[in-house]
Design brief:
The chain has 505 residues and is mainly alpha-helical. It is built from 19 helices and no strands. Helix 8 packs antiparallel against helix 16.
Length: 505
């Protein structure tokens, strides 16, 4: 039941909010948040009762472990073994459901055998709810979590706006908002702001992302089927997919934030105009922000600090010291981040590409090499991003190699197919690409438009552009009409096959 489905918009959302608001009015916020736990489980159960059972096992197991870790930390007796066991248990469960068949493929390639795949259903959102709970265990072990009831923890771990595709929230961001509430669930201004950002996200997904998707699909599916692709078509399909994923993920992120606001909980930003970035490091501070935060806090930083200590102890020269404390940790971190997205060699190479690019970018700054002009930095960044997304989108490295070779004129490295040329309407495609590109690069993003009523847990920027101030949202009749128009137009254009791309990860 994705957010852009009639079932969600017409049935689930109105019923869930009505129950939430009524209970808050007559029984208070604590009971209302309990309603959210039930609603979130019902939301997830619509996908599969079996998948709900897997989610509940994960929630209950992590709650029990987290409770013990919290008590141990409060008693100044943190249990390292229990933390490691809890993390490994989560990773094992994730690995079984998501990577078992990939490991079988590797074994078949290495041993030359033909082991059959297991029949395993991939639980939607398992990467997200698993890492949210790993983060909770780490926070509990560090004494940064308070004891909560099992139903309150369930609300945190399964809240339907983010359980399937993020953001990766931290326990403090959610739990602190549940305490000492005195406002009303029917706060008109808050609901209006939430509906507006939700409408913008739905519009991005249904109108923008879904309109450009066919051109990306034609290009990549054609190459995967053995077709030959020329450079212009390769670039067109690659840019089309780049914009499709941008508006798909941006739309989901907006909808998640909007739903959180409607139900009284601000969520962290996960998307902040990443295609305006002028370096690859800047890009990852804007794209999938909470994932970047998670891997920075729990993978990169420990590795970097350990590497720095070893480098200082052994009195390494500057470059080896950078490799140990900055280069290798970021490459490994991005490799893990790439694999986190999915099982397959394409995700491995996607992570490696970005890891090497960030390492080069950071090393360039650390060794005070000549500054790169913003325009040049943007072009280099987008070259890495688009090339990376070609790998990300391709079903295998052969397809990715063919598209990239055509794009960059490396025909001697391509595995060009012997089929017919891949065909798509270039004029029609670019008539959509150009205006979408203008929006991406020139217009304020959703949270900037909603800056008067800051809608996330992140710090509000001190300054806004003049255009942002002109387009700034206000709770008035004009914006009510805009929101209604966005909802109606998006609602009337919902397709039968329009799932969010991150549901696959």
């Amino acid at each position: 039941m994705p957010f852009n489905s009639y079932e969600f918009l017409v049935l689930f959302l109105p019923c869930a909010f009505a129950a939430f608001a009524i209970v808050q009015r007559f029984a208070g916020w604590s009971s209302a948040f309990n309603v959210l736990a039930v609603a979130s489980l019902v939301f997830y159960a619509q996908m599969s009762i079996k998948l709900l059972a897997i989610l509940l096992v994960s929630v209950i197991s992590n709650y029990v472990i987290g409770s013990v870790l919290t008590r141990s930390a409060l008693a100044s007796k943190p249990s390292n073994k229990l933390l490691i066991g809890g993390i490994l248990g989560n990773i094992f469960a994730l690995g079984y459901f998501k990577y078992t068949n990939f490991f079988i493929d590797i074994a078949n390639q290495v041993a030359g055998q033909g082991f059959d795949h297991f029949s395993i259903i991939l639980p939607i959102g398992i990467s997200f709810y698993t890492f949210i709970q790993i983060g909770f265990l780490i926070e509990a072990h560090g004494g940064r979590a308070e004891q909560r009831s099992v139903i309150r923890y369930t609300t945190f771990a399964t809240f339907f706006p983010y359980v399937t595709a993020g953001p990766l929230v931290m326990q403090k961001e959610i739990f602190d908002q549940m305490d000492n509430r005195t406002d009303s669930a029917l706060d008109g201004r808050r609901i209006a702001a939430g509906l507006t950002i939700f409408a913008m996200g739905l519009f991005k997904k249904v109108v923008f992302a879904d309109s450009i998707a066919p051109y990306a699909n034609l290009a990549f599916n054609g190459v995967a089927a053995g077709g030959v692709i020329d450079p212009v078509t390769a670039w067109t399909g690659s840019v089309a997919y780049t914009l499709q994923l941008y508006f798909d993920f941006s739309g989901y992120s907006d909808m998640a934030v909007g739903l959180g606001i409607i139900f009284g909980l601000k969520l962290p930003l996960n998307f902040n105009s990443p295609f305006k970035a002028t370096s690859i490091s800047d890009f990852w501070q804007r794209w999938h922000i909470t994932m970047t935060r998670f891997f920075t806090n729990y993978v990169f930083s420990p590795m970097a600090m350990n590497g720095m200590r070893k480098a200082i102890k052994s009195k390494m020269p500057a470059f080896p010291r950078f490799v140990f404390s900055g280069g290798w940790p970021i490459i490994f971190t991005m490799l893990v981040a790439g694999i986190w997205h999915g099982s397959g060699w394409t995700f491995v190479f996607y992570g490696l590409l970005h890891g090497v690019a960030i390492a080069v970018n950071n090393g360039w700054k650390q060794f005070n090499l000549p500054a790169i002009a913003p325009t040049t930095g943007w072009l280099l960044t987008m070259a890495v991003v688009i090339s990376g997304l070609v790998i990300f989108r391709s079903p295998d490295m052969g397809t990715a190699g063919t598209v990239l070779a055509s794009m960059w004129g490396l025909t001697s490295f391509t595995t060009t197919g012997s089929g017919a040329a891949v065909q798509l309407s270039l004029i029609d495609a670019w008539m959509i690409i150009l205006p979408l590109g203008f929006i991406v690069l020139s217009m304020p993003n959703t949270q900037e438009i909603l800056s008067r009523d800051w809608v996330t847990t992140d710090a509000k920027p001190k300054e806004m552009s003049r255009l942002t101030n002109i387009l700034s949202w206000k709770p008035n009749a004009g914006w009510a009409l805009v929101t209604a128009a966005l909802l109606v137009f998006a609602f009337s254009n919902i397709g039968s096959d329009s799932s969010f791309l991150y549901y696959d990860f």
